[in-house]
Protein: NAD-dependent epimerase/dehydratase domain-containing protein
Amino acid sequence: MSNSIAGIGTGNGNGKVVCVTGASGYIASWIVNLLLQRGYTVRATLRDPSNPKKLDHLLKLHGAKERLQIFKADLLEDGSFDSAIDGCDGVFHTASPVTLRVVNDPQVASFHNSIRSSLVDNPLFAATVFAVLCIMSLRGVLSNFHCPVLLKQAQLPIIHFSFVSLLQAELIDPAVKGTLNVLQSCAKSPSVKRVVLTSSISAVLFTDRPLTPDVVVDETWFSDADNCTKLERWYSLSKTLAEDAAWKFANKNGIDMVSILPSMVAGPLLQPEVNESVEPILSIINGAPFPNRVFGWVNVKDVAIAHIQAYEIPTASGRYLIVERVVHYSEHARILHDLYPTLQIKDKCEDDKPFVPTYQVSKEKAESLGIEFTPLEVTLKETVESFREKNIVNF
Ligand SMILES: NC(=O)c1ccc[n+]([C@@H]2O[C@H](COP(=O)([O-])OP(=O)(O)OC[C@H]3O[C@@H](n4cnc5c(N)ncnc54)[C@H](OP(=O)(O)O)[C@@H]3O)[C@@H](O)[C@H]2O)c1
Structure:
């Protein structure tokens, strides 16, 4: 499969230096690829450049030998991005933890249970955890969470402290403090003309408004942090808090920022490992019943193009939803069955409840960036072909 993107052209970036944070990730790898294709010099930040699974696919990109520079940076280390960003014309901030599971997911529940049994079986461990968490709490680490939520569960406070502090440390802090850390480096560097922030439709959908087939969601919507908490949508909470903090910081410090809000992203993988948003597609082709859930979907190459256009078009401003189509997972099962009729794809939902309704997402602003969306059918085929190419599946 070719990694070049037709129709995007080459050469606009000649002589310009830009930074991409979290460059080893699924979306960021495509942004780096496209920037190199357009002639930019790319400073790619990685948490662990010594890990070949994170680095090698970037080094293989066309133009990498001449114009790709690798920097080590961690979202949680103050000033970590200074050297990568200093002297750049533009910054693409994509790095953020991506975990789309909700708390009542079996995998998260089993994690919760394993904390519970460790604490119940081992009082010394429990006491140590409790002491550490009290110190963290006193230092304000838990400040984004509401104490009543913890107190309601008074019978097992330690478990909830553990869970909440883990959420804070693993998801909320890297997203929120990490974004501010990157923006602080941008504010220090007068060369930076624009920052493109990778936010998410998760920072849009969770208002008080219903999501039904007649509703058209647009960029004026902004998720409410309390709603995300109520719904236990922790990833959405992290993206909502991060984008909100980013706009406040950018406005206060005169940073020209544009945010990109993709829905679930699929399409070919450049990195060797399966990322969160393509996982459900792998699960369906492996014969699992489809989830009773509805998501918007978009091709990873269209998301990368949107980032570059948002950077290059001087009049681009504000937020851009990037969504091709909103569908129930039953639609994935149908399309995948049509594409691969010999596979044992189940025409069965994982529960017997009525299907969650769909909604619509406005394409008006995305189209003003010149985005021509790849149809979901093509995106799903490209995703599965990429699994085959990387021997993630063998059929
Ligand atoms: N995929 C989607 O469907 C989707 C949809 C909407 C928005 N987004 C957003 O798009 C961005 C990229 O997502 P993705 O799907 O490409 O996910 P991904 O493949 O998991 O990439 C996430 C990147 O963030 C980096 N990262 C995480 N924690 C970090 C830390 N503490 N310090 C430095 N880097 C850290 C990861 O580094 P390591 O590799 O070292 O872990 C990785 O490079 C995220 O901001 C995500 O919220 C994704």
Observations:
- The pocket of NAP is lined by residues 22, 24-28, 47-48, 54, 74-76, 94-98, 174, 178, 198, 200, 239, 262, 264-265, 275, 277 (CB under 6 Å).
- Residues 157-188 form the longest helix (32 residues).
- DSSP finds 16 helices and twelve strands in the chain.
